[in-house]
Design goal:
The complex is a heterodimer of chains A (145) and B (313). Chain A is mainly α. Chain A has a single domain, classed as Four Helix Bundle (Hemerythrin (Met), subunit A). Chain A has helices at 2-47, 54-70, 90-93, 95-115, 119-140. With 313 residues, chain B is mostly helical. Chain B has two domains: 1-182, no CATH class; 184-306, Cytochrome Bc1 Complex, Chain D, domain 2 (Orthogonal Bundle), CATH 1.10.760. Chain B has twelve helices and four strands; from the N terminus they run ααααββαααααββααα. Chain B has helices at 2-22, 25-32, 45-55, 57-61, 103-112, 127-130, 135-146, 170-177, 191-201, 252-261, 274-281, 286-297, and strands spanning 77-80, 83-86, 228-229, 236-237. A two-stranded antiparallel sheet of chain B has the order 1-2. The longest helix of chain B has 21 residues, at 2-22. The A-B interface holds A 36-37, 39-40, 43, 47, 80-81, 88-89, 130, 133-145 and B 230, 234-238, 257, 261-263, 266-272, 275-276, 278, 307, 312-313. Chain A: GO terms for molecular function: electron transfer activity; heme binding; iron ion binding. Chain A: This is Cytochrome C prime. Chain A: Keywords: Electron transport, Heme, Iron, Metal-binding, Signal, Transport. Chain A: InterPro entries: Cyt_c/b562, Cyt_c_II, Cyt_c_prime.
Chain lengths: 145, 313
């Protein structure tokens, strides 16, 4: 009986480990999709397509900081492939560098958040934050399909 | 029996001689015609600068690990199915770079893939696209390169297994795949379209990454720009024809914006080897980016090549 119980627990644990693994991939992709969606408003404002709105800009910057905090924990060794991840193998070869990129992304977003008060300060400070996106994707991301 | 042997030896000798003849750089010129190397005396440096960024020379030739993209000391390792190439120093350094070259040598390198001392270059240097450029544009580009800082030091040698380490064999490859045709403008199309086609197919060498390649390393012509496995072996390069899987849903402005900022219409930032391309195209003017977008929007839809079987990492 005890044996069966242990076996059941082991299977259950194993199953959660598998779930957790595809879960992390879904979670981190969801977070990054959120970052992309949050960039729509300020992106339109930079192009002059949508009127400047300070609240929306600050909301995007808050989303970035939140993402930068959560993302680095979502790359366990067993999540290199699957779930349509576009994570590059480089992440696991250079986890420290990957984390540094997120730290810089958060710091830049925070700095911009403090500096941006109106449209002029937005146009002066926001593009530097957006440099982080391509900068990180160039090294740590690769489209596999 | 002896006669047969003699015949065989003669045939082999003829074969070797034929190979030697066919692969001679001068044979290429004989077959395709020598390129026009006559140029006006003073280069237009502004045009040269534009072509430098359109051509993406810095992506391969800039010294790795430094911010200044105009210090062209070389050394970047380029992985390929044939081995590892190292981009050479093309700064104006007289000993280590191309400081000692004349403009005619430069034009022949870019259009015929041949060095001043008559060696074939590997097509890892995308002269298959640069051959579309005219003599006066190349002279302007050369003039601009000469204004950059001279960087000391040579890149490591390429690391290529036999037989790819034999440059001579490239003569055959070039006879087959380097057509030697300079871009001709199409009078039935707008000036903008023609400019866009020139930038995309010539200096921009977009097809070098965005197309599948045959085992010979040459682009599969009827699949041009429909995407393909990354030449450096990482991931898959997307389809940029007007196919559903490509840029059909993108507007001309969307494409121009991507080339300026690196953001897709969904605000995803392109990465991988497209990152350095954006660093170059972001230096161009809006008119040139718009022209490239105009040309891409005019391409017929081509389905993407089949994906390679998934390999476990």
């Amino acid at each position: 009986m005890l044996r069966i119980a242990i076996a059941t627990i082991a299977v259950a644990l194993g199953a959660t480990a598998v779930v957790a693994q595809s879960d992390v991939i879904a979670q981190r992709r969801e977070i990054m999709k959120g970052v992309g969606a949050a960039t729509k408003d300020p992106g339109g404002m930079l192009k002059g397509e949508t009127p400047f709105d300070l609240a929306k800009v600050q909301k995007a910057l808050a989303t970035y900081q939140d993402a930068a905090q959560k993302m680095p924990t979502l790359y366990p060794e067993n999540s290199k492939t699957g779930g349509e991840t576009t994570a590059a193998p480089k992440i696991w070869e250079d986890m420290a560098g990957f984390k540094d990129h997120f730290a810089k992304f958060a710091a830049d977003a925070q700095k911009a958040s403090a500096a941006i008060k109106d449209e002029a300060t937005f146009k002066a400070n926001f593009p530097a934050v957006l440099k982080n996106c391509g900068g990180c994707h160039e090294t740590y991301r690769v489209k596999k399909s | 029996m002896k006669k047969l042997l003699v015949a065989l030896v003669v045939l082999l000798a003829l074969g070797a001689a034929g190979f030697w003849l066919l692969t001679a750089p001068s044979t290429y010129e004989l077959v395709r015609g020598a390129p026009d190397v006559t140029v006006a005396s003073a280069p237009n440096l502004e045009n040269g600068r534009t072509l430098f960024w359109a051509g993406g020379c810095a992506s391969c030739h800039a010294t790795p690990g430094q911010d200044d993209r105009t210090r062209l000391g070389g050394g970047l390792a380029l992985e390929s199915p044939f081995g590892t190439f190292h981009a050479p120093n093309i700064s104006p350094h007289p000993r280590d770079g191309i400081g000692g070259w004349d403009v005619a040598s430069f034009i022949r390198a870019m259009r015929e893939g041949v060095s001043p001392d008559g060696r074939h270059y590997y097509p890892a240097f995308p002269y298959t696209s640069y051959q579309r450029m005219g003599a006066s544009d190349l002279a302007d580009l050369f003039g601009f390169l000469k204004t950059l800082s001279a960087v000391e030091g040579r890149a490591p040698d390429h690391v290529l297994p036999f037989p790819y380490n034999l440059r001579r064999g490239l003569g055959l490859w070039k006879l087959a795949f380097l057509d030697g045709k300079q871009a001709q403008s199409d009078p039935s199309k707008s000036a903008e379209w023609n400019r866009g086609r020139y930038l995309v197919e010539g200096p921009g060498h977009c097809a070098e990454c965005h197309s599948p390649r045959a085992f010979t390393g040459a682009i599969v012509a009827d699949k041009r720009l429909s995407g393909g496995p990354d030449p450096e072996g990482k991931g898959f390069v997307p389809n940029i024809t007007q196919h559903e899987a490509g840029l059909k849903s993108w507007s001309k402005a969307d494409i121009a914006e991507l080339l300026k900022t690196g953001f897709t219409p969904e605000y995803d930032a392109v990465g991988g080897s497209m990152g350095p391309v954006i660093r170059n195209t972001s230096q161009l003017g809006d008119a040139d980016r718009g022209a490239m977008a105009e040309y891409l929007k005019s391409l017929p839809p081509v389905a993407s090549p089949p994906r390679p079987a998934k390999k476990a990492d």
